[in-house]
Amino acid sequence: MTDVRVRFAPSPTGPLHMGGVRTALYNWLFARAHGGTFILRIEDTDQGRFVEGAEAYIEEALAWCGLSPDEGVNAGGDFGPYRQSERSELYRAAVQTLLDQGLAYEAFDTPEELDALRKAAEPDVFQYDATTRGQLRNSLAMGAEEVAALKASGAPFVVRFKTPDQEEEVQFEDAIRGSVSFKSSVLDDKVLMKADGLPTYHLANVVDDHHMRISHVIRGEEWLPSAPLHVLLYRAFGWDHPVFAHLPLILKPTGNGKLSKRDGDAGGFPVFPTNWTDPKSGDTWPGYREQGYAPEAFVNMLLMLGWNPGDERELFTAEEAAKEFSLERVVKSGARFNPDKAKWFQEQHLRNAGSAAHVEALLALAEAQGVNWTAEQCHAVLDMMLERVAFLPVIMETGWLFEAPTDFNAKLVRKKWKEETAGYLHDLATALDGVDDFTSENVETAFKGFLEARELGFGQVLLPFRIALTGEGGGPSMFDFAAFLGKEATLDRLNRGVDAVLALKASEEG
Ligand code: GLU
Question: How confident is residue 506, by pLDDT bands cut at 50, 70 and 90?
Fold first, then answer.
């Protein structure tokens, strides 16, 4: 393969939707898989849609995801500038070569005139093309003198691409979809350069992909209809076009259609990688980062929205995925987003990273909450809790980890707390008091010895033990937890728990 150079080319018209991040990810993976270069190009030619802060948001979101570009506005590179608004000269020169060859033309039709044509054509759709351009106000239909006079008078004009006069089949190979073909007659004479002298997306995109030596254009399916025009533009310029690969849409969790911001609002899940605050309204939309997702989990989730390794594996680091990534394994049909699955990826990543990886973070969370845990204690808490949560802060919402419970699950108490239970727990406390080295193993041995001596079953004592220590019916190993609390606190909770439960039962009966 020739040098692989791919680009992610967002327009800074707002925050990056997770579909955009997936496009960036697949480009990044493809570059890594082939020892290539990943470029970030900012397509900011549409001044009307420019949004303050959007470009910085894109850079930051990509950095959070670990998808930093090899070339780009911040990264630099030999093919800059990487912002289209700084490349106007290049587009002007390119358009001039098309005009000189008669492959593009100047059009003076005003927006009002075009509107009137559209209205008049209804219910058909008016198209500026080979069949209509001869009757319109452009440099192909008018004499050179008229054109010169109009220009001299300062009349605004656009430059349009001249689509083929004769209908032909425009065909190209898409790396994901295979052979794609369109009839040239479906294309209109697209505007390449606007009246303000700025290029449209189509012109700037093709010119830049050529000048930046882009080998593969990997982008969302919504750009597939533009691809035939791009193929014709490359031909007009006399350039080879890059390989195209159009990624499937990301679909809403249920029903038809593309995942949108509204689905996120309705379903209570983020559609943006990081929080986004609209500079105009001040409204903030949630991001995966601020919801506590690890970037690795978010990226893994996006990876699996449209790609698979050909077997059942789902958990990948980006580096692992890069070793296997290929466009052939990208699916053609839409990929349905499932917010529960996103959470599942987060759980898996949290667990698989292991306790040690989270000690620092938990220390910080504990400290912020005024809980004085040491690193060792944080590690022990993580050993107990990592399997049970999807997000670290949830651990700090687990009150019984750092203070004796005051609330006891009344329903459970009613069902499981028998006459004799309090007596068992008192005796258990005595047995545990005899344990010198209060490790999980020693607590377990003492506990089992106690059951054996009293000929009691596990269930008769373990659940009340748990209720006394945590107030709840489920959680980590109570031997681990007792060891974490230490002897004194364990015995204290046992005794307090017994008293509290007795009071609860008395109040329920009374
Ligand atoms: N600027 C376009 C966008 O916002 C780029 C499309 C492409 O990759 O060609 O998605």
Answer: confident
Q: Tell which residue, 54, 42, 50, has the closest CA to residue 83.
A: 42
Asked if residue 260 lies in contact with residue 337, where contact means CB atoms within 8 angstroms, the answer is no
Residue 167, classified by CB atoms within 10 Å of its CB into exposed (0-12), middle (13-18) or buried (19+), is exposed
94 shares a domain with 139: yes
CB 275 within 8 A of CB 268: no
499 shares a domain with 425: yes
By alpha-carbon position, which residue is closest to atom 2 of ligand 1? 10
Residues recognised as catalytic:
261
146: its two tokens: 């008229």
Range of the domain at 388: 355-392
Q: What does the H/E/C string look like for 204-265?
A: HHHHHHHHCCCCEEEEEHHHHHHHHHHHHHHHHHCCCCCEEEEECCEECCCCCCECCHHHHH
CB proximity list for 257: less than 8 A, separation 6 or greater: 251
For residue 228, tell me if it sits in a domain: yes
Question: Mutate which of 26, 28, 205, 258 to test ligand 1's pocket (most atoms within 8 Å of Cβ)?
Answer: 205
Last residue of a domain, one of 392, 418, 445: 392
Write out the two tokens for 241: 């076009």
The number of folded domains in the chain is: 5
Q: Are residues 369 and 301 in the same domain?
A: no
Residue 204 has pLDDT above 70, yes or no: yes
Residue 397 lies in a domain: no
* Rounded distance from Cα 142 to ligand 1 centre (Å): 35
Average pLDDT rounded to a whole number, residues 463-471: 94
Domain for residue 62, yes or no?
yes
DSSP one-letter string for 315-352: ---HHHHHHH--GGGB-SS-EE--HHHHHHHHHHHHHH
Asked if residue 398 belongs to a domain, the reply is no
Task: Quote the ligand 1 centre to 207 CA distance (angstroms).
Answer: 13
How far apart are the C-alpha atoms of 433 and 426, rounded to whole Å? 11
The conformation of residue 472, written as its DSSP 8-state character, comes to S
Residue 417 confidence (pLDDT) above 90: no
**Backbone phi and psi for residue 485, each to the nearest 5 degrees, phi listed first:** -70, -35
**What does pLDDT average to over the chain?**
95
Contact present, 132 and 126 (Cβ < 8 Å): yes
> How far is it, in rounded angstroms, from Cα 77 to Cα 65?
21
Round to whole Å and give the CA distance between 334 and 19: 12
Maximum distance among all Cα pairs of the chain, rounded to whole angstroms: 112
On whether both 345 and 362 belong to a single domain, the answer is no
- Residue 14, Cβ neighbours under 10 Å: how many? 20
Does 48 have pLDDT greater than 90?
no
Q: Give the nearest ligand 1 atom to 218 CA.
A: 8
Instruction: Judge if 422 and 498 occupy the same domain.
Output: yes
CATH code for the domain in which residue 57 is found? 3.40.50.620
Residue 50 confidence (pLDDT) above 90: no
For residue 1, what pLDDT is reported?
A: 63
- Is there a contact between 88 and 96 (Cβ–Cβ < 8 Å)? no
